[in-house]
Amino acid sequence: MKLETLTAAVLSGGESRRMGSDKALLRTDGGTTWIERVVWVARSRAVRTIVVTGRSPRYVDLFDPSTAEIVPDDSDVHGKGPLGGILTALRLTRTRHLLCLTCDMPGVGLDAIDELGLPEEHQDVVYASKMFFPMVFRVTPALLSVAVNRLQQDQCEIESFLKLLNGRAIVLAAAGGHANLNTPEDAKPHRDSP
Q: pLDDT tens-digit profile of 168-182?
C-alpha cells in the first residue's frame, strides 16, 4: 500500500570502484537490474520516487518519467557521498516523510520497509541498525539545516549524521536482505551467472 506522506529516494551516485562495474546495472537472477528492483520496492510504498545519480543524470533510459524522476546531486553537494544525495532528495521532497534506499541493495523487500515504518512525531529518522539503509526521515526545516551544516563542514559520514538526530535504529527481521553489496564477492548470490 502506498503512503501518501512518503517520497522515496534511491541513491545511485557512487562510482562502484570496489565492484569494478556500475552496481546499479548488475542484474538479479530474474534479469532485472539492481536499480530497477530497488525502484520497484520504492514505488510500491511511495507516492513519488526520485533516483539521485551523482554528478550527471544516469539511468534515464531505464525509467519512464512517471516511474521515477532522475536527478543529479545538487551542485553544492556533489562528491559528498550518500549524505549529499540525501540532502538533494530532502530538498526535492514535498511530502512529510522521505524513504532513502541505495541502488546496491537488490535484496531489500517490502517487509523491511514495512517493518521500519515511519518516524514517530518526536523522531527525525528511523533506520536499519548497523547497515543504516533503508532509512525514513521526517522532513523538517531543522533536519535540512543539520544536513546542510554537516556538508558545509565536510562531515559527510552517515553514522555521525544519524547520531546528531533524534532517531531510532531498528534491527530488521529480514536480516541481510537490506545489505549494501559493494564487491563482486558480496554480489555473487544476487546476480546472474555470466
A: 999 988 655 555 655
What cell numbers appear for 176 in the block? 541481510
DSSP calls for 92-115: H--SSEEEEEETT-TT--HHHHHH
What pTM did the predictor assign?
0.88
Rounded to 5°, angle at Cα 135 from 170 and 14: 130
**Buried b or exposed e, range 23-47, using 16+ CB within 10 angstroms:** bbbbeeeeeebbbbbbbebbbebbe
Which residues of the chain register pLDDT less than 50? 191-194
Give residue-wise pLDDT tens across range 130-144: 888 999 999 999 999
Contact 77, 87 (CB under 8 A): yes
| DSSP string covering 104-165 | T-TT--HHHHHHH----TT-SEEEETTTEEEEEEE--HHHHHHHHHHHHTT---HHHHHHHS
Cell of residue 116, nine digits = 521500519
